[in-house]
Design a protein that fits this description.
Chain lengths: 339, 339, 339
């Protein structure tokens, strides 16, 4: 096993789930997701408890799904509402696993593992995705790699120079000193660049031409997310690494939910606190991320294949990998606690 | 192993086998089938006894097959007639397994397992497929599921309501009481509907408009066939479940020969004792079955995948599954005897 | 393991390797091949020693390859020249395996196994491919079979009658007596046809119409090559099996480098000592071989599948297979020595 079971995982964007059943495998478990008439999301194992036909092939009836093999009607709690033959006694033991669901920060989260442990308070705090004064949008990619390779990738921004050579790679960023901090299960990688000239994107966002403090702060949030806090603020505001809201700020949001040991669902996006009503900017940022993350996906899928093809070689940890290495250590420790 | 080895299995329709070699894997064993000049069918392991090139790539020479690698000539008994070099001594030990074959009831049957046990008397009695006064035709489908899922499917007609919603599903059928009977290795599922109004198809077949007795009798015939006796007879004829030849009668014929543990060859058709010279009706029935069975195939292949994807869930046996459950018990017991 | 590790293997034609990295797996090990500025060939494991991204995705910088993930610069010895962050101390332990390379007889040879044992003196002597007065050309095919099936095929020319029925099959060849000789690790299969009339191809090559001695001599050269010496010389020259250079002579060159246990790289060609400046003849011979070897490839790939599908059947060794059987015995013995 390469992932922690008893956790909330992003299963879908809010907009992906409708009244029509959506099939998606999370941590090796086939799920079907759909919205009740009232709008809240249901997550069930995608198998009829009778003969295991996927419920995602089923028919909606009210808030239930009717299996199209023998007609067993499954409720949103996974329990049967009607048996294959009408008037047959409903047997609650013939049920399919139901999963706790929370819809928050634009995502649908499901709890994998023991359902009695599903505490909504444990949903990771992606506050920039839902806070007043911020706007958030993004996309989804299916990636054929171990989600941990993606965590490695995001917890190290030196790869930008090569992987994103044609897009966002910037040599000057590499010069700034990098701080790694581990605080419990949270791993943070910080770059604080005091009194620098802002690059074009940030100058435009700030709507002022002045010397700024600039930051890039990557946070690994277990089990499988990385949030990257980026922005600039006028140097005279005196912002700090701990508190920096005087200028313009964004968060690159990345959540890599394991599908299997070697594939993952990649939910990505950008939250920002400037020009929040500019739908055109939102669309451009989304398109830009789509292109840039596509560059990462190509690298990661090739890396996954190469790891399998070179079983005698190990991944080496250099100084630039300390963020990812710390994150893997957190995952390792939590997997042990989980088991 | 999920199938009984020492049994006769349908390997092909009579019309599928000609002088040209036909390759088909039965119960995990690659076979080549062809007809001798005199017309009788030969079944050999599809591998030259010399270097294992498929004999189905070979050339017919008289009743023999010549391997197109080195030219070894194999007779219909699997023994060499000529070695790769002409004048080399023929060595009977360099032979390929030959299989007992019986052509009966429009099918080519092969005996898998110990050949000395191949008693033609053990070929299942598909009498409606070959009896005078009856006509029989059908088709072939390759299906990616365990043949036992198909037996389950056929030994339970409640699925018609949902799977065949758009075609033959009929709610009123579901109301009729169902009798399950086990007699040795034969499992029978019977519905007797006394004094009912015949549905359009049967009224037309009967050529009379009168009250009828109607029946549906599914029989599992080991190792892997289901025959479904259907029809109506005028109520005044006094037909019974045991004897009902006063009206019009048909048999839906299904034989699901295992190819591997998760794939099977599906031979299906319809035999009937009315309008037997109406080739148009024969063609229409065939086309209808092709369409209807295609609906089953889609369900069964998805079910097979779902079973593999949900290893922690088991197939549940409800009352409607008793026919299939009894059939599986027969298969289980015979596999043990066989081993 | 089905191949000898400590050996020189053909990895590519000389013309296949350029300054651009070429990825090719040899004996299960992914390699990247490229030429230095000075022209000599480098072979490295195709994985960056840092995070294992294929180096064949890298960028050439001088004689080095820069990984396009984090920018580690790998030298032709597999050692790092620059670490992902400039000014970081170069750590020689973070290196990728480098392979000894020899370019000889138009091929690029790599040594698989322990590199300290890579003696260039052990490269097989394909002298007709590089000797003055000879010309050599050929091609490459990727074949989905165990390389030993290909050795079997080439060490037995009786298959020509059937496999090459439409092309080079000649019944009269089959009549000539065949001598098998084993001398250490070399297996030789010889046909000497004294005082025969030359077939059209050789008559034209000889430019004379006279009675000739004709020969076909197949040599298995471990670990995986077969060279076939063919030609004719005027009978009055008194040539012998040991020495026959009075007429026209060619070598069919075949080297089947294992990729995996069930796939191989097939390097084939023809060397000759007549009309050596006739580029049109060279092209026609190449096109002819391409077509003829395509017939073998079809057979061999089907044979490989059939061997897997018939695990209860074994390859039989008849008299015609003695060449291949001896070659396999040599391989078997050398694999044991190697281990």
């Amino acid at each position: 096993m390469t992932f922690i079971r008893n956790r909330w995982y992003v299963a879908a964007w809010d907009g992906e789930v409708s009244s029509e059943p959506l099939a998606r495998t999370i941590c090796g478990e086939p799920l079907v997701l759909y919205r009740k008439l009232a709008g809240d999301v249901v997550a069930l194992r995608d198998a009829c408890p009778h003969r295991l036909l996927p419920l995602s092939m089923g028919l909606r009836e009210g808030d239930n799904l009717r299996c199209t093999y023998h007609g067993l009607l499954v409720g949103p709690d996974g329990k049967p509402r009607e048996m294959p033959i009408v008037h047959e006694r409903v047997n609650d033991k013939v049920c399919t696993p139901a999963y706790a669901v929370v819809e928050r920060h634009r995502f649908v989260w499901v709890w994998i593992g023991d359902q009695w442990r599903a505490d909504p308070g444990l949903v990771p705090d992606f506050w920039p995705c839902s806070r007043e004064g911020w706007v958030f949008d993004g996309g989804y990619s299916y990636v054929k790699c171990d989600y941990r390779l993606f965590v490695d990738n995001l917890m190290d921004l030196t790869h930008e120079t090569y992987v994103h050579m044609g897009s966002i790679g910037q040599a000057e960023l590499m010069q700034a000193p990098l701080e790694t901090a581990v605080d419990g299960d949270r791993v943070t990688l910080s770059r604080w660049m005091p009194a620098v000239s802002p690059p074009p994107f940030w100058r435009q966002a700030l709507k002022r031409d002045c010397t700024v403090d600039r930051w890039q702060i990557c946070s690994f949030i277990e089990p499988c997310s990385v949030l990257i806090d980026v922005g600039v603020s006028p140097v005279e505001a005196g912002d700090t690494l701990e508190r920096h809201d005087s200028g313009v700020r964004g968060f690159v949001i990345d959540s890599m939910t394991p599908e299997t040991e070697t594939t993952c669902h990649y939910f990505w996006g950008m939250a920002r606190n400037f020009e929040i009503d500019d739908a055109g900017l939102t669309a451009r940022l989304r398109a830009g991320q789509d292109r840039i993350f596509g560059e990462d996906v190509e690298i990661l899928e090739r890396q996954q294949l190469s790891i399998a093809a070179n079983p005698d070689m190990a991944l080496r940890v250099l100084s630039i990998d300390s963020g990812g290495a710390h994150a893997r250590r957190v995952i390792e420790r939590l997997m042990k606690q989980d088991a």
